[in-house]
């Protein structure tokens, strides 16, 4: 019997690389008080520092919890505009912001149909959850015109970003 | 994306909000939708703007008007952007 901890291999993804321009999209962006449609291009153009776009598992899954705890503890919001994206609804996002205690500092894009992940080449089906797909875990650091300064996409599941490497870009 | 002058604070599936939406469409007005919390007690953003926690509420930067109550809003839109205006 194999008692090794096995991760699921996902293989390489064909995603936007450093130096390329990240695809634009508009989705509801959720803050602690309301949500409204916001284009990524708008976010990038208005941000003082870089924009960090963090794709993560649906709200409530442990990787989403771990990632937001880590980002919160590292206070990335002080140096960048940091937004998450998952397939969870705006209602669930509001709870995540509250439960992770990141209200006011971070916002979350809601993309239940997973179209953004598809455009970024990072969509994955969820085994045992018929009809559901979500983004692979991924982090993109973008400048004001959406040029990718840093890209990381998980090639196994679960996978977590190299937080120090992201932080070095901020 | 352009920044519309009118921001509508609304609640998903709220008929009074849809009434305002229909009126905005009727006059071809651009607006930004901000969806708020269903829990009345947590709608602080609306309270700060209009003094009440009710939706719909609109902020019209074109005229400097902030108001709530759908009947009032519909009347305001009619008077400001309707044919009589």
UniProtKB/TrEMBL annotation, chain A:
<dbReference type="Pfam" id="PF00578">
    <property type="entry name" value="AhpC-TSA"/>
</dbReference>
<dbReference type="InterPro" id="IPR013766">
    <property type="entry name" value="Thioredoxin_domain"/>
</dbReference>
<feature type="domain" description="Thioredoxin">
    <location>
        <begin position="16"/>
        <end position="170"/>
    </location>
</feature>
<dbReference type="GO" id="GO:0016209">
    <property type="term" value="F:antioxidant activity"/>
</dbReference>
<dbReference type="GO" id="GO:0016491">
    <property type="term" value="F:oxidoreductase activity"/>
</dbReference>
<dbReference type="InterPro" id="IPR050455">
    <property type="entry name" value="Tpx_Peroxidase_subfamily"/>
</dbReference>
<dbReference type="InterPro" id="IPR036249">
    <property type="entry name" value="Thioredoxin-like_sf"/>
</dbReference>
<keyword id="KW-0676">Redox-active center</keyword>
<dbReference type="InterPro" id="IPR000866">
    <property type="entry name" value="AhpC/TSA"/>
</dbReference>
<protein>
    <submittedName>
        <fullName>Redoxin domain-containing protein</fullName>
    </submittedName>
</protein>
UniProtKB/TrEMBL annotation, chain B:
<dbReference type="InterPro" id="IPR004045">
    <property type="entry name" value="Glutathione_S-Trfase_N"/>
</dbReference>
<dbReference type="InterPro" id="IPR036249">
    <property type="entry name" value="Thioredoxin-like_sf"/>
</dbReference>
<protein>
    <submittedName>
        <fullName>Glutathione S-transferase N-terminal domain-containing protein</fullName>
    </submittedName>
</protein>
<dbReference type="InterPro" id="IPR011767">
    <property type="entry name" value="GLR_AS"/>
</dbReference>
<feature type="domain" description="GST N-terminal">
    <location>
        <begin position="4"/>
        <end position="85"/>
    </location>
</feature>
<dbReference type="Pfam" id="PF13417">
    <property type="entry name" value="GST_N_3"/>
</dbReference>
